[in-house]
Write a structure and sequence with these properties.
Elements lengths: L14 H22 L6 H24 L5 H23 L5 H26 L9 H6 L7
The structure holds fe (ii) ion.
The site of fe (ii) ion has 6 residues, from α3 and α4.
Length: about 150
C-alpha cells in the first residue's frame, strides 16, 4: 500500500514538473514497501534523491525564473533545506545509523507541504501566463495516470 497516493491535489499543472513529482512519489512508495518488508533505506536511494533534487530543483527554478516568479528566493531556500537535509541523512547513514523512518517521514512531509502547498502556489501563479493546465482539465482527460 502506498504511503502517499498520487492524486490530482499534487498536480502543479506543468507537465514536466508533475512528471518529476510523480517519479519522486513512486520512488518513495517503492522504498517504503521495501522498508515494510524489512529492507532499510540504502545508499542508492539517498544518491537517487541527491541526483533527482539537483535536476528537479534546477528545472523548477528555471520555470520560476522565466515567469519572473516573485517568490523565487523563498522557494529556492526551501529547496536548499531539502538538499542539506539529504546530505545530513547521507552522513548519518555513513555512520551506520538507521535513517529509514526519519527519511520516509521527511519525504512524506515534503510531498504534502512543499509539493502540495508551495509548488502548487507557483502553479496558481503561472495561470496568469496561460501555461498551466488546471487539475480539473488534467483529471478530465485522464492524463494523471499517463504522466
Ligand atoms: Fe519546489
Amino acid at each position: 500500500m502506498p504511503i502517499i497516493e498520487w492524486n490530482v491535489n499534487l498536480l502543479v499543472g506543468i507537465q514536466e514538473i508533475d512528471r518529476q513529482h510523480k517519479h519522486l512519489v513512486q520512488s518513495l512508495n517503492d522504498n517504503y514497501d521495501r522498508f515494510r518488508e524489512g529492507t532499510e533505506i540504502d545508499t542508492s536511494f539517498l544518491q537517487e534523491l541527491t541526483d533527482y533534487s539537483a535536476h528537479h530543483f534546477a528545472c523548477e527554478e528555471g520555470w520560476m525564473e522565466k515567469t519572473s516568479y516573485p517568490k523565487l528566493a523563498a522557494h529556492k531556500e526551501e529547496h536548499g533545506l531539502f538538499t542539506s537535509r539529504i546530505s545530513e541523512f547521507k552522513k548519518e547513514h555513513k555512520r551506520n545509523a538507521s535513517v529509514s523512518v526519519e527519511l520516509i517521514w521527511f519525504l512524506c512531509n515534503w510531498v504534502t507541504h512543499h509539493i502540495q502547498e508551495t509548488d502548487a502556489e507557483f502553479g496558481r501563479f503561472v495561470d496568469v501566463h496561460n501555461i498551466r493546465r488546471t487539475r480539473a482539465e488534467i483529471a478530465r482527460r485522464g492524463e494523471i495516470d499517463t504522466l
